[in-house]
Write a structure and sequence with these properties.
Elements lengths: L1 H17 L2 H18 L1 H14 L5 H25 L4 H7 E4 L2 H9 L4 E6 L20 E6 L5 H11 L5 E4 L4 H7 L5 E6 L9 E5 L2 E5 L2 H8 L3 E11 L2 E6 L6 E2 L2 E2 L2 H18 L23
Parallel strand pairs: 1-9, 2-5, 2-8, 3-4, 3-5
Antiparallel strand pairs: 6-7, 8-9, 10-11
């Protein structure tokens, strides 16, 4: 079954690779509209999250926002199949940058600088490894991934990410290799920071509701003396995106490291601002606000 899925996936990617990107995006939006009608479970998750995050919206506004979100998801995932096989020149035609100049200047002035960028599921999030096009003075790009249950599907996923030249490390198995990579100069580490982080996360409010939030960007920035930023990918048109970097999030105050929670709250603030700009652009079908597990009762 896994092998069959792998070759089906290869076939779909092959078809997407020969079609114009705008056609792929258009077809993806139609697929997303169909998913809105068929995928009741994720439709309900998105609606519940949107109602809680934007209580000021009417029911009609919320449902239309959710429908557009599903169309965006279809567009994003379809385009990933196409952009995964594109080279740097082609990516430069569909992706623009804002705020990256300050990082490029920083690396020109000090090639030994290191940067952590807290990223999330905004727009075509698979374009984040192409940050390097907006920061040409950087030399080393690092990211993490979580392997899938099927090794062949993991192989296919990594194949789609290979063209960017980003060094990717499996987050649960390759911690030693990641730590070694963090010693490289002119380095940028991108870390997803908008998913439910489980029992190991910090309990902090996101859109007014407590969520389990990963402290990883703050921890890595402090541990490896990196500078910290937040980045978002925004849709600018059919099959077109822009990656933006916010102002620097300080990790030190009065010569001392700031508290990890305080830094993480600043990341959340940046995330919320990015989401409010274009709510349909974020990943509402993920339940970030899961309740913490109940402690086990001790046996008498």
């Amino acid at each position: 079954m896994e092998t069959a899925l792998y070759w089906i996936g290869r076939g779909i990617i092959g078809i997407a690779s020969i079609l114009p990107l705008k056609l792929v995006a258009w077809l993806g939006r139609r697929a997303g509209r169909l998913a809105w009608h068929l995928d009741r479970r994720h439709r309900n998750v998105a609606l519940e999250n949107l109602v809680a995050a934007f209580p000021e919206h009417s029911e009609t506004e919320t449902r239309e926002l959710a429908r557009e979100h599903f169309r965006r998801l279809g567009e994003t995932y379809s385009c990933i199949l196409k952009t995964g096989g594109m080279n740097a020149e082609d990516i430069g035609q569909i992706l623009s940058f804002e705020g990256c100049d300050k990082l490029d200047k920083m690396f020109r002035e000090n090639p030994d600088e290191r940067v952590v960028i807290a990223i999330g599921h905004f727009g075509n999030f698979e374009l984040f490894p192409w940050f390097r096009l907006g920061i040409p003075s950087s030399q080393n790009w690092v990211g993490t991934y979580r392997e899938l249950r099927q090794p062949k599907m993991t192989e296919l996923m990594l194949r789609l990410r290979a063209a960017s030249g980003c060094q990717l490390f499996e987050r649960t198995r390759e911690g030693d290799r990641l730590r070694e990579a963090m010693r490289q100069p002119a380095l940028v580490l991108g870390l997803l920071a908008d998913q439910h982080a489980g029992a190991s996360g910090l309990r902090l409010p996101v859109f007014g509701r407590n969520a389990s939030v990963t402290p990883a960007p703050a921890v890595m920035a402090k541990r490896y003396r990196c500078r910290l930023f937040h980045g978002g990918c925004f849709r600018t048109g059919l099959g077109r995106w822009k990656i933006e970097v916010t102002d620097e999030i300080p990790i030190r105050k009065n010569g001392k490291h700031r508290d990890t929670k305080a830094i993480t709250r600043d990341i959340i603030t940046a995330q919320e601002a990015a989401i409010r700009r274009d709510p349909a652009n974020w990943f509402w079908v993920h339940n970030r606000w899961k309740n913490p597990p109940k402690p086990r009762e001790s046996k008498p």
